[in-house]
Structure formats: structure tokens, C-alpha cells
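Researcher: Let's try something more involved. This one mixes different molecule types, so please make sure each is placed in the same coordinate frame as the others.
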Amino acid sequence: MEESEKLERIIEARMKLKARFEEKIKLTPSVSDDRPMGVGKTNRHGMPNTPTGQTITQKWPVLDLGYQPDVSLDRWRLIIDGEVENPVRLTWDEFMALPQTDDTSDFHCVTTWSKLNMEWKGVRLLDLAALVQPKETASHIMCYGYDTYTTNVSMEEALKPDVLLVHTFDGKPLAKEHGGPVRMITPQLYAWKGSKWIKRIEFLPQNKLGFWEERGYSNTAYPWRNDRYS
Ligand SMILES: Nc1nc2c(c(=O)[nH]1)N[C@H]1C(S)=C(S)[C@@H](COP(=O)(O)O)O[C@H]1N2
Ligand SMILES: [Mo]
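Model: All components are placed in one shared frame. Result:
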């Protein structure tokens, strides 16, 4: 298939997915709550920039399972499978040939630090979904990291336009300690929902708990509801 034709297909599938999840996305807490818990100026999503219980930091702390996998670009692969019409196993070059998005967003860690206005570049989860075409039965994704980490996200959260698989932060390749070469970010959920060193995204027909979710952290992780634990 021609590159231009491939892109057109992704754009068409993206529009369809957006329409399919539009109503559900509107009903998510970080879009619909009219009394969000938090303080500070209104952020780009209409929420107070500092969710309740959070403190702004300028530094960027590192959290991991005690192991930072080393993934070279030639060995890097991204598998997207499960409840999809068109499973893929992308190489680095194939990933970088997908539509690229620049976005500025905030990062809220459940351990109470938030870092604001982070400048990212990467591929929207929405565009990856458009590529693989989730079946009607898909309701959640499970993300897997090269370090064995897992975390689950509902489709209506995952398909928001600021959920990205990022490879660039502040104009530079994402550092290994922060999940480089590629990690996911979830600005409207606590940051543990974004897998560092992401390796696989599995579309699921029902919810399933990830690493922290199985250990007492919230399934849903809404910062403006102080939704930290289950
Ligand atoms: N693969 C993987 N992803 C992960 C983690 C991890 O241990 N492994 N930790 C999570 C947690 S708890 C947080 S707060 C953020 C931290 O990202 P940072 O280390 O870049 O600040 O990554 C999340 N993603
Ligand atoms: Mo965290």
C-alpha cells in the first residue's frame, strides 16, 4: 500500500473511533465533573492545574520496579494485539512513520508530586488504535513494559487526544530512566497508568488489573477525585 493511502486510512479510522467513543469520553470525570477537587489556574482541559493533595515539583523524580531495561532502537518492537482487526508488530521506523503529535501536558504522580507543562512528542494512542482497528467488543487496554510492568486503561480514557506514546521530551530523546525509547503518558489519570518502556498494548473485551491495580491502587485513577486506592 502507498504511504499516502496508509495515512488516509488511519485518518478515516481515527474519525470513526472518535465518533464511536465521543459520548463516553464526554462522561469521563476529568471532562464532565463540575466540581473537580483541586486548586490553581484552570489547565488546558478545564481542570484546576493542581489536583487535590498534589504538590508541584520542578524536578522530575524517577519511579520504577528497581530495573531499567535497555532497549536499543534496532531491537525495539511495539506489539498491538488482542481484540483488533489488524494486529501489528511495529519496528522503530514504522512507529516513527505514523502521524506525530506535539503536545504540552501535566504529569500527576500518585505519590503526590505533579510536574506541569511538559513538552512531549509522540504518537497518539488514538492513531495506533486507528491503525489496528479495535473490534466492537474492545473495552480496555492492557499495557506491558519491557520491565514486566503492566497497567490497564479504559478505552474512553486511552482514546483522549493527549494520551500519547512519547519518544521525545523537551526536544530531546526521552531518557532511559523515564521510559525511553518510548513510554505512554496519561495526563488526565495518575501517571502510573502510563507504562514506561512500552512493549505491547493488548485490547481486551473486559477489564483486567495491572501491576499496581492488583496491589491496591485504584482501577480508574482520577486525580480530581483523589481516586488513589481501591
Ligand atoms: N514500565 C513501567 N512503567 C511505569 C512504572 C514502572 O515501574 N515500570 N512506574 C509508574 C509510576 S508508579 C509512575 S509515577 C510513572 C513514573 O514515571 P517517571 O519515572 O518518568 O517519573 O511511571 C509509571 N510507569
Ligand atoms: Mo507512581
